[in-house]
Amino acid sequence: MTDISSNTQIARSKPPKTEFMIYFGIIFLATLPLATLTWGLAALRTGSLTEKGPVKRAWSQARIITPIIFSA
User: Fold this and answer.
1) Apex CA 29: angle with CA 24 and CA 30, to 5°?
2) Distance (Å, whole) CA 72 – CA 65
3) Three-point CA angle 17, 33, 61, nearest 5°
4) CB within 8 A of 54, min separation 6: which ones?
5) Contact 52, 41 (CB under 8 A)
6) Interatomic CA distance for residues 61 and 39, integer angstroms
7) What is the longest distance spanned by two Cα atoms in the chain?
8) What is the pLDDT of residues 10-66, one digit of tens each?
9) CA pair distance 24, 18, nearest whole angstrom
10) Dihedral angle sign, alpha carbons of residues 38, 42, 45, 49
11) Distance CA 56, CA 46 (A)
12) What is the pLDDT of residue 28?
């Protein structure tokens, strides 16, 4: 009996890291203005600066959104 499973190639759908980082950068730059706006409004409402600044907010949003795009 012939073993045909040893010659089969496994198809992996792992996106290239360069493409992922390009999308991440675009999404980060797109979310930065809105993150700055929401951070400023929250600072005005509470009267003090919050722990999470606008860059950290935009970074976390990009970390959430980018993998969703690649998993679709």
Assistant:
1) 95
2) 11
3) 45
4) 32, 35, 36, 38, 39, 40
5) no
6) 13
7) 77
8) 556 665 688 889 999 999 999 999 999 999 998 888 877 767 889 999 999 999 999
9) 10
10) negative
11) 19
12) 96
What's the token pair of residue 7? Answer: 């010659």
Which residue has 């907010």 as its token pair? 57
Give the closest residue to 31 by CA, choosing from 67, 66, 69, 72.
66
Task: Extract the tokens encoding 29.
Answer: 């730059």
pLDDT for 51 equals 73
CB environment 10-24: b (16+ within 10 A), e (fewer): eeeeeeeeeeeeebb
Instruction: Dig out the tokens for 39 from the structure.
Output: 């951070």
In 3-state terms, what secondary structure has residue 51? Answer: coil
- The amino acid that residue 15 corresponds to is P
The candidate with the shortest Cα–Cα distance to 58, out of 33, 38, 31, is: 31
